[in-house]
Amino acid sequence: MQQKGNIQIIEWEDLDKKKFYSFGIFMTMAIRVTVYPATLIRTRLQVQKGKSLYSGTFDAFFKILRTEGVRGLYRGFMVNTFTIVSGQAYITTYELVRTYVSQYSEANTIKSVVAGGSASLVAQSITVPIDVVSQQLMMQGQGEHLTRFRLGSNSENRKSARFFGQTRNIVSQIFAADGFRGFYRGYVASLLTYIPNSAAWWPFYHFYAEQLSILAPSDCPHLVLQAVAGPLAAATASTVTNPMDVVRARVQVEGRTSINQTFRELIREEGCWGLTKGLSARIISSAPTAIVMVVGYETLKKLSLRPELVDSRHW
């Protein structure tokens, strides 16, 4: 266990792996349920031309709620739950790479950057096909005119086809149009978005937590400091990587093949402000995600400590 100033970092070798994975699945699902509506709104804002559909995050929220109901905020959620697999792969890769890098460097920043980037590479290889399908489902309803694929009337109306019937419909259309490669459309753009995002988030998280531990009273619970550091790190990383996230969303939803062309058209049509599209929704979604993830993840690690270490730690 590494002592980083006043904050103790629980490392991979300190954990009971059975507890870690058992609790981790529930934590990942809780995060998905909490932030999915903001993710859907962010996707629609990024794909729309100018402000043709929504004027902003809150306008999108109320319009979707009014015209499509609560179900509209969770379009594509069922297929998106398969990202639980990538979530567990991300956590495992991050912790294993941290352990490996610690053999060569004890610098926490270096371990965080390398491990965060590596974890995102592994997770995105699993997540991109799921994202491609779920994003097409997110755009149905008010945003269906902005996407290449639309649900047939039968799949929309029959109750038996409401969930996985819609997914099969979209999967069939993607495969018919683009083949297997269609499910990895925007893969490079995703890597260019999420690897830097992850590589930036972890160092900023540890940095903010450390600075807060210096400023806060000595009896302040570490979990409170970490819960504040998480959203700060998320906002910082989201701001830095949002331009690439806008390009990624358009490549995947509109079926584009060129990242450079998509970027140039975005600048030409909407100017530099186009690169900030969906940023507020992204921060709004990333902040609670960061709080839930940090509180859940740090609690998960504490609950998963090997029995012989539990009584020797003070939080």
From TrEMBL:
This is Solute carrier family 25 member 44b. Gene3D superfamilies: Mitochondrial carrier domain. The chain crosses the membrane at residues 20-41. Keywords: Membrane, Transmembrane, Transmembrane helix, Transport. It comes from Poecilia reticulata (Guppy). Solcar repeats lie at residues 18-100, 107-211, 221-303. Belongs to the mitochondrial carrier (TC 2.A.29) family. Signal peptide: none annotated. The keyword Cytoplasm does not apply. The keyword Membrane applies. GO terms for cellular component: membrane; mitochondrion. It is found in: Membrane. One of its GO terms (biological process) is branched-chain amino acid catabolic process.
